[in-house]
Amino acid sequence: MITLYQFRAQPGLPNPSPFCMKLETYLRMAGLAYEARAVLRPGSRTGKCPYIVIDGETLSDSSLIINTLESRFGHPVDGKLTLAQRGESLAFQRMLDEHLYWVAVYGRWVAQPTALRRTFLEGLGIPRFLSGVAAWAGRRRYQSVLNAQGIGRHSPEVIWQLGISDLQAIAHWLGNRPFAFGDTPTVLDATLYSYVGNIASSPWDNPLKNAALKHRTLMDHFSRMLARYFPELAA
């Protein structure tokens, strides 16, 4: 049995973290039995969520966990991909996890109004009397992180456009296919819909959310994945 430690789910989405959402979706895609536990303070070596405990071993980082489970259980999800398809999948996953992610962080922690940051934190389990301080501290922390990463040094207009370009690129690549590589979902599908879902469900309008909503291809893909793996949440 796998024990999955992740943030608390919020209405309408499996998880407010694209990394947690991707990993839990993968576990369902692979047919692996697991127990999910919500945590506020991650207990992994990296200090981040998600992480799992399997056979007494703690594994962290969603992508590394998926790679380990794929290898350990006979590649149940991506096993039929060609080497070229694996290369495409990895390239797009890197774009989502290492580039689009930071624009999404900017939207959630820096550009989003304080009241909505407080609501988000309270949804994760932060007590109301602490949420204001946590919202302020979170914004300050992520401003510093984004500045160090590089994206935060640009103007808001440029930051939004960087993320919009990512969405455009993968939407055009996906086209009218039901899933990334045909009729069967892969790890890339789990990654993509996790980002689109978190971006599109933002409680306030912003350029990145509006761009996602305009891409029918991406929104249909999100709905398709949600209905397939989390039917209890699908409208």
What layout of secondary structure does this protein have?
Elements: E1 2-6, H1 18-30, E2 34-38, E3 51-54, E4 57-60, H2 62-72, H3 83-111, H4 114-124, H5 128-149, H6 156-174, H7 187-200, H8 207-214, H9 216-229
Parallel strand pairs: 1-2
Antiparallel strand pairs: 1-3, 3-4
Helix pairs in contact: 1-2, 1-7, 3-5, 3-6, 3-7, 4-5, 6-8, 7-9
Describe this structure in words.
The chain contains nine helices and four strands; from the N terminus they run βαβββαααααααα. With 235 residues, the chain is of the alpha+beta class. It has two domains: 2-72, 3-Layer(aba) Sandwich (Glutaredoxin), CATH 3.40.30; 83-229, Glutathione S-transferase Yfyf (Class Pi), Chain A, domain 2, CATH 1.20.1050. Strands 2-1-3-4 form a four-stranded mixed beta sheet, covered by helices on one side. α3 packs antiparallel against α6 (156-174), α4 packs across α5 (128-149) and α6 packs parallel to α8. The protein is globular. The model has no long low-confidence stretch (mean pLDDT 96).
Can you give keywords for this protein?
alpha+beta; 9 helices; 235 residues; 8% strand; globular; Glutathione S-transferase Yfyf (Class Pi), Chain A, domain 2; Glutaredoxin
pLDDT averaged residue by residue? 96
Judged by helices, strands and strand pairing, the structural class is alpha+beta
Q: How many helices does DSSP assign?
A: 9
The CATH C-level class name of the largest domain:
Mainly Alpha
Spatial arrangement of strands, main beta sheet:
2-1-3-4
Domains (count) = 2
Strand count, sense and barrel status of the largest sheet are: 4 strands, mixed
Would you identify the regions where 5 or more consecutive residues have pLDDT less than 50?
none
